[in-house]
Amino acid sequence: MDPIDGQTLPPPAPFMFGCAECVKLLTAFGEKVTADAGCFYEQLAIARHIVEEHPDQVPEPHARNCDRCPRYASRSDGDPGGLWAEHRARDLFLPEPIARLL
Ligand SMILES: [Zn+2]
Ligand SMILES: [Zn+2]
Q1: Is 2 part of any domain?
Q2: Does residue 1 sit within a domain?
Q3: Separation of 69 CA from ligand 2 center, angstroms?
Q4: What global pTM score does this model have?
Q5: Which of 35, 74, 84, 88 is the most core-located residue (most Cβ within 10 A)?
Q6: How far is the CA of 87 from the centre of ligand 2 (A)?
Q7: How far is CA 11 from its chain centroid?
């Protein structure tokens, strides 16, 4: 897996530029990305923020190329911890191969 760098990041979803907290989190993530290819903390912070503050922007479950959505979908208790929603929210600011890691 190639490390994340500024070139491989997709442009963040447009709604994120209208939210001061999103911009702040994306800036922190962007600064971290060049120094630390993992930057998991920043990734998680953005995904959690989107789920909590922008739930209507969370993408639909992935129909393909994802082994996590079918597993989440088969759970009888839904998504109590919001982890499935966080997984889908990663699409909004990460390249697909990296977004689907968590
Ligand atoms: Zn936001
Ligand atoms: Zn998925």
Answers
A1: no
A2: no
A3: 4
A4: 0.86
A5: 88
A6: 6
A7: 13
Q: Is residue 65 assigned to a domain?
A: yes
| Cα–Cα distance for residue pair 54/51, rounded to 1 Å | 6
Scored b (16 or more CB within 10 A) or e, 50-61 reads bbeebeebbeee
Residue 58 has pLDDT above 80, yes or no: yes
Which domain, by its residues, includes 79?
Answer: 14-99
CB atoms within 10 A of CB 98: 19
Give 62 Cα–ligand 1 centroid separation in angstroms.
22
**Number of folded domains that form the chain:** 1
- Give the whole-angstrom CA distance, residue 49 versus residue 52: 5
Tell me the ligand closest to 52's alpha carbon: 1
Ligand nearest to the CA of 22: 1
- Is there a domain that residue 57 lies in? yes
Neighbours of ion ligand 2 (CB under 5 A): 62, 66, 68-69
42-61: average pLDDT: 96
% of the chain at pLDDT higher than 90: 63
Between the CA of 53 and the centroid of ligand 1 the distance, in Å, is: 6
Ligand with the closest atom to the CA of 24: 1
Q: Using pLDDT thresholds of 50, 70 and 90, give the confidence band for residue 1.
A: very low
